[in-house]
Amino acid sequence: MKIAIIGYGNMGKTYAGSFINSRFIKAEDIIVVDRFTPTEKEMLGIPAANFISEVNDSFSETDIVILAVKPQDFEAVSEKLKSKLTDGQIVLSIMAGVTIRTIQKMTNSLKVVRSMPNIVSQIGMGMTVFSASPDIDRKDLFIIQNLLNTTGKSIYVDNEKLIDAATAVSGSGPAYVFYFMKSMIKAAEQLGFSASEAELLVNQTFIGSINLKNANSFSNEEWIAKVASKGGTTERALEVFDALSTEDIIAKAVMAANERALELGV
Ligand SMILES: NC(=O)C1=CN([C@@H]2O[C@H](COP(=O)(O)OP(=O)(O)OC[C@H]3O[C@@H](n4cnc5c(N)ncnc54)[C@H](O)[C@@H]3O)[C@@H](O)[C@H]2O)C=CC1
Ligand SMILES: O=C(O)[C@@H]1CCC=N1
User: What sections of the sequence does the record tag as coiled-coil (predicted)?
Assistant: First the structure.
């Protein structure tokens, strides 16, 4: 199977790396289009000749074309791509917001899969939610899901609106986690820890908590109750979160991301 990746930034590189490392796709079967020439290390064993700056005739030989540019760059890409795609090819988009309908219109392609991965795909622990146009048959969907699963876990949704919702939850989600970590590190420093000590305390707390959660079937509420002793320190901190409506703030932020995904699709 041959794959073209348009846009070799954070996500384009992540995808190429996952496909190659999982041995699902051979490095020589990947074509990359970007304005920038990557370093040798970034090429991941893909032959230098397979890196091109514009979509060209070699595209008609590929089975899947992955759109990994920013939504704002899609129009320019689609202009070049439109005339090169043939009927059997699958277009797989990871762009935030851009709808299946828009991708179909702008690429003249009926076989479109729209997905929302996250950056954690870099270490094979990503979360991807995907949906497909009616012309994608079961076999196509199976191939795509196998490909996506080289980057982590995936779920298929019929309702395309859930791709925007996933963008706001799991797509942008890693940044929310890093934001929370950054805030805790800052507080730890204010309490007297050095920057590296603060980072260790917070990293280990996150890694440990997630692994603990995964090792048992208790809910988040149950875990909170196990940590927060009556009249103790955690309870005092949680009172501050509640008094400042932190849950509402987080919900508002996620809704804002969802709104932005919808705007990007217009
Ligand atoms: N960064 C993330 O965590 C996630 C990003 N996404 C989506 O993935 C897409 C890419 O995001 P990133 O990789 O973070 O962006 P990026 O900015 O790191 O990479 C985009 C690449 O596209 C290239 N590019 C721009 N115009 C081009 C053109 N006309 N032809 C060929 N290449 C062109 C740029 O040179 C750049 O290397 C976006 O649509 C974003 O919504 C989805 C999930 C997570
Ligand atoms: O911020 C963005 O628009 C992209 C989509 C999800 C993560 N990054």
Answer: none
Ligand 2 atom closest to Cα of 71?
3
Q: Is 8 annotated as a binding residue?
A: yes
Shared-domain flag, residues 25 and 120: yes
Closest by Cα among 7, 10, 254, 258 to 118 = 10
Reading across the β-sheet that carries 90-93, which strands appear in turn? 51-52, 30-33, 3-6, 64-67, 90-93, 112-116, 126-132, 152-156
Q: Is the distance from the beta carbon of residue 42 to the nearest atom of ligand 1 less than 6 Å?
A: no
State in Å: Cα 8 to ligand 1 middle: 7
ipTM exceeding 0.95? yes
Residues 121, 233, single domain; the answer is no
Ligand 2 — pocket residues by CB below 6 A? 96, 167, 171-172
Residue 71 Cα, ligand 1 centroid: separation in angstroms?
A: 8
Closest atom of ligand 1 to CA, residue 73? 26
The answer to whether residue 205 sits within a structural domain is yes
For residue 33, the cross-strand partners are 6, 52
Domain that holds residue 193: 173-264
Total structural domains in the chain? 2
